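ok so I'm stuck.
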Amino acid sequence: MSNCSDETPYSEEVFKDATPIRIAVYTIAPILAFFTTLIFIDSTVYVFEMIPNKSRRNKTIWVLLIYPTFTMCSVLALYIPRASLICKFASSIILAIAMYQFLKLMMDYYGGRQAMLTILQDSRISLNTLPVLCCFVCLPKGPLTERKLRILRRLVMQVGIVCPIVYFITCILWIDDKYNPGVLDPKEPFIYLSTASITSTIIAMQALSIVFMASRKPLVKYNITAKYITVQNALLFGNVQSIALNMLAAYEVIPCREPYPNRSRAEVIHNFLIVVEFFVLGLMARIFFRRRQGNLDKLIDSTMEKAEIDLDEKDIDMCMNKEKMEEEHVVKAGYLNGIDNKALDESDVITTNGNTVTTKC
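replied:
not stuck anymore, here's the structure
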């Protein structure tokens, strides 16, 4: 293969006449991927043992699965450059599923969909959030209704359909030698597939951001901000970074270097960055997802408990007021000396929350 050709190198050419920098890259990447996988296994074992709620446990594991999946797929793409698109296709499916599971996990922290709507019914939900709608400051605020929540869920869910389809079509066109990454030409499929992928990713990020901004204060004890950052950055690095590097390679900002043409070299840079970035994100995810605090309770439980306590106190106050009014009435009527104190003491018994409360004045 001649230097600076458009042909993607085979795996045996990668290690031929390898430079020290290339050897370092191909040594560090699998080591980081190995530790990322160990972190995931450790977190998964902890989640299985410490979180009894099966639904919350499964959602948490789906989110944690993002990081080892991307690192392992990127290492495979480093060692087998021609498998890069297939690895992206596999990792995009996991990322799409995990994003939707994270949205459901936020709802589970509330206590479910209905509990989320109940808690946020008096809140004014802002639509002008990052990454795009923050520019539209005149967008109206309103309560989170069931219809709005259903739309937001579907906007997050669509990335799980669009991005895998885009990568599947990309693989088919690449096999047929009709896909040239980074070429911004109306006759090339890259511009259309990239636009579809970026648009789908931004829409999903926008919908997830709206739900997060509404949940930031109610779910503060669940470390929701840190968890959201790990998922958002995974989506950003996984889908947008590769497209940006391919565009730089197409205009020769990233030069070719034997045995890689400029586009293949952009993929090498992207895959190595993914390994490093997702190792760091995996560490962050372990810190904030692998803990009992915020994983054993639901927000609606504490809210209901407080409401029940307030109700009990209110019932007791009503009972005491009733006793006082009856005594004043008896005194005014002149019959206080003839009243059986025992009958008065046992006259009123109230029941609060399944418990019998006897009031005596």
